[in-house]
Amino acid sequence: MKVGDASFHWVEDSFAVEMSVNLGCELAQKYQQNAIYWVKNGVLFLVSCGDNQTQKKLGRLGNFLR
Q1: Residue 35: CA atoms inside 13 Å, Cβ hemisphere, count?
Q2: How confident is the model at residue 53 (pLDDT cuts 50, 70, 90)?
Q3: Cα separation of 5 and 53, whole Å?
Q4: What is the phi/psi pair of residue 9, to 5°?
């Protein structure tokens, strides 16, 4: 799937998989990514994959799908 900014000026390939936030961050760090998107109960979060795994609630996932 493609993800990007609201206007799709910036776009990149993305993958959706079912896994824990901890495992997702481990995988992100392996590929030198700073953060992941994570969905819990239909709510989208941006999760920092540093030591503290800070989570920012972005809103309902459906609001971000085209």
Answers
A1: 10
A2: confident
A3: 22
A4: -75, -35
Q: What is the pLDDT of residue 38?
A: 93
Q: Residue 7's pLDDT is what?
A: 82
Query: Which residue's entry shows tokens 């990007």?
Result: 4
Inter-residue contact 47 to 54 (CB < 8 Å)? yes
Q: Helix, strand or coil for residue 31?
A: coil
Q: Which amino acid is at 46?
A: L
pLDDT tens sequence across 1-40: 777 777 888 888 888 899 999 999 999 999 998 999 999 9
User: What is the secondary structure of 1-41 as a DSSP string?
Assistant: -EEE-TTSSSEEE-------HHHHHHHHHHTT-SEEEEEET
